[in-house]
Amino acid sequence: MIYFTADQHFGHANVIKHCNRPFETVDEMDATLIRNWNDTVGINDEIYILGDLTMKSAADAHKYLSALNGRKYLIVGNHDRFLNRIDVFENHFEWVKDYFVLRQDGRMFVLFHYPIAEWNGYFRRSIHLYGHIHNSEASSVRMDNAALAFNVGVDCTDFRPVSIAEIIAMAEARMENQ
Fold it and tell me: Which CATH number characterizes residue 14's domain?
């Protein structure tokens, strides 16, 4: 299975307040995010992280990444500062990129940390997946004209990764309602 996620912000206490996350402490948030991830993603599943895994050090990133299931691919976010250590991403990621086009099941998925107004294949029903914005209200206001753009940040996905099957189902439902 293939999964997508963004904006965990592991170890970032202020994100709880800024995004109104339902956690009392950063330890509670981190434990919930890790549990939800591992309850969803199997060891051999692929998971595309669309940025902002953690703002912490390379050592902290290593600790978090070691606890998470799946074959990991990283689309760089604005807070992924741990990437200054090549050993972290060589040991934990299949690759690290700024932008990626995934072709799967006859569909095209444009992966980027930031929401964009128009993307590769936009007029051919390609699907844009992004993070960065955090809450669903902001994403719907900014992306209301983009029917096949989805915020896969944890604040919008019940703090767990979302599967490619779920994304396809949501895209098909949106296309039916147009």
Answer: 3.60.21.10
